Amino acid sequence: MCAENPLRSLWRKEWGPEIEAKFLERGIAFSDDSVWNTFYVRNKAEEGAILGVSRVDGEGRVHYGYVKVFGTHDDWVAARERYAPFHKGDRYAFALPGSDSIYFHFPADRRVRALHHVTNPRRLKHYLHSHVPGFDANSRRVRAGKTVLDLLRYKPERRAVLRARIALRDERSGAKEIVSHVVRVHADRSGLNASRVLPTLAKAVSFRLPDTLHYDADSRIAIHSWVEGKPVLDDWAAGGRVDLALAAGRALREVHEASVPDTLPVRRSHDTDQRARRVVRDLESFLPGIGKDVAALLEGESRRPAEQCLVHGDFYYAQIVCRGESDIGVVDWDECRFGYAVEDVANFLAHLNYLELESRIPGGFARILEREFLEGYGTPPDGLARETALQLVLLAMRPIRSLATRWEGRSRAILRRAAHVLDDGRGIQA
């Protein structure tokens, strides 16, 4: 029987009831049939832990927040003096009992500090009119009451991604329209890379990319156009449209052959090895002794060619959308940089393995998609099996981060697949 995740236990016994009481103090009551949903977990010995949670209230609104458990008592004391209690508009934070922890209610975030500027239609309207060309209040006025914001992804203290369906009115003609954009807010300067690369890359590739409308280095807010299309996984889940894997391979080859500004960060050749070792150390806090089981995966260092190229940095199925036949778009360029082609190729293959292990695509379909993808890409980079195995090690934290049911068995299954891939010498294990 799988052991209960220690963070889930703390939530169930202490944090959840305390947070519910604080919500009631603010006049917010949760729906009787709603439960707390854990959407993100991060646990690092030196930084402490983060538990992202959400719940639907009695009026159907989803509330997001996260618990930050600090690595040291001194860090918690310093943060408590600054943040707890804290209340400003719809942002608030308060200390929790039972540990050195603080709850932050979205859009309050210790690291993603500009988040509150874009999570409310009226504040987004003000930001667009004040900072973004093309949204001049005297010509294209934002209609806040008709603007809709959807939170697509949120990694507390790292980044948030929203889809904004912005209602506009032409002040001269009176014409109304709705435009869709992606609003990204970062804790670091990740968005800067995409703003530098995308305008040049769009001229060099045949697939669709988001347009960069705005990036502000101070607030770390980035705004891009929405790339229309449905996720390729919609078809792959039913065992269809293998041609989309072929198109994905061709698209990635175009990225790796593109000439772009040389002002991007450079990824060191051993970055994936180091990241995998850090993940195994983090896994140890949930799965004691796991380091010994995967020691062979982490031996030595990956060999890299002398030449680097532009890499997407997180190329896998969720970043690819399709419209019509093989008209694909590639999104989420936050991690783009100069690196090694094998990293992108291996990440794509590792995620195909993951889909198969999670039974999200038919059994054996991952090998078919791999074949089509590599046919589209061309000659596979050297060291693909080892890199794919390392990328699978990185994915082993995913069941834990979402506190998925049977998380222990699912993480171990991913690590076993990584070992098989390394032994087999192929990207997909039959």
Task: Supply database-style keywords.
single chain; 430 residues; alpha+beta; Phosphorylase Kinase, domain 1; Aminoglycoside 3'-phosphotransferase, Chain: A, domain 2; 3 domains; 6-stranded antiparallel beta sheet; globular
Textual characterization of the structure:
By secondary structure, this protein is an alpha+beta fold. It folds into three domains: 6-105, no CATH class; 115-225, Phosphorylase Kinase, domain 1 (2-Layer Sandwich); 230-424, Aminoglycoside 3'-phosphotransferase, Chain: A, domain 2. 36% of the residues lie in helices and 23% in strands. The chain contains 13 helices and 17 strands. The strands form four sheets. The protein has a six-stranded antiparallel beta sheet. Strands 7, 8, 9, 10, 11 and 12 form a six-stranded antiparallel beta sheet that branches. The protein has a three-stranded antiparallel beta sheet with strand order 13-15-16. Helix 7 packs parallel to helix 11. The two termini are 28 Å apart. The model has no long low-confidence stretch (mean pLDDT 88).
